[in-house]
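**Fold in tokens:**
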Amino acid sequence: MDIIVSEVSKSFGSNPVLDRFSAVFPENELTIIMGPSGCGKTTLLNILMGFVSPDSGSVSGVPEHKSAVFQEDRLCESFNAVSNVRLVCDRKVDKNTIITHLERIGLKGSLSKPVSDLSGGMRRRVAIVRAILAESDVLFLDEPFKGLDDETKKTVMQYLKDNIGKRTVIMVTHDMDEVKALDGRLITMPGKTDPL
């Protein structure tokens, strides 16, 4: 089922963030959202994930099983990378599978350290593997490659493409190179228009 956003508006106090925004996110496809800062991209993801309610309009078709990479990594600091991923996995995902995924994106040698000891880019990759291995029908990615150097980013983008499977994926980015590399449908959100 496609995810359909119809005429959604949202304000925080006197600050309107979304104004009658509509879009269709096709089932089992990758859709990438771009737009200027403050245009409501993260707010839209939070509405789709059910964390925030719209003031008006409707959202339909969002699957129950969701996984996400947030702007913040949201890891359990004292746990190592494998344990952080294990927290969200189905029992049938074994430890070796988790290790294989983490090593695939360059974390070999860092798997036993608590994630609080890892660099920002390493933590980001743990968050991405966690979202991929969680059992979900839709994957939300809010600037997932933030803080990764160019070479690492290429590796991680390829990993993502290889492991999305049959999921619906909705990703926010500011980087047109990422749109081209991942070959997704692009939705550009309008910036705020200043009142006359």
The first helix runs from residue 41 to 49. The CA atoms of residues 35 and 189 lie 5 Å apart. The two ends are 40 Å apart (CA to CA).
